[in-house]
Amino acid sequence: MLAFNEMKLNDALCKMPSQLQAAFALSCAQRLSEVVKNCRNRTTVLNIPLDRFDAVLEALWEGATNGSSIGSAIKHSIELLSAEPVSEDALEEAGCPYIEDAISALIYSFNALNGAGERYACWAAMQAYAAIDDFVARTYFSADIVVDSDALLRHELTQRELSRQLRDLGLLQKVAQRRDEWAASCAQLRVLSSSEAGTLFSL
To answer: CA torsion sign, 72 to 38 to 125 to 178?
Structure first.
């Protein structure tokens, strides 16, 4: 059974260049992007500029894949998205409890791409894992009982996300020392994570 191990993940990520750390983080943010798509029309009352999420995600993928710089307009969008977090109660009421997970993963991806350190890529993965963990607890277990953490970890959705993260990490580890293969590997990861975004919360 797979488990989320922050220390091991950090150790693996620290051996990669910032572009590949960012690509790993972006694969997690990409899978969470479906949350944004589903909530875009329900969060105007919360004053979250979700219309900027896709453009930021696109620009960060370009940066990770091709080494292109992040423009001022994208940086401004990131600043707006990273404004003071909306309360959990407000997000619950809007039916969008995982918006902050998606936004945080995106911002951590930006930090990773800027060379802020592997911990940001690790935190992006943690956001995806936390969202799945919470969803499984809410959906497949009774609210009237204390849920066993091992039961949550064993669930198919949790194991699938952890397996995807392990796959993404392995793909990037293989090319970490081969600069000429970074772009193709990042592009491959983008395609994979995009295709998986719609199934993050479904069996």
So the answer is: negative
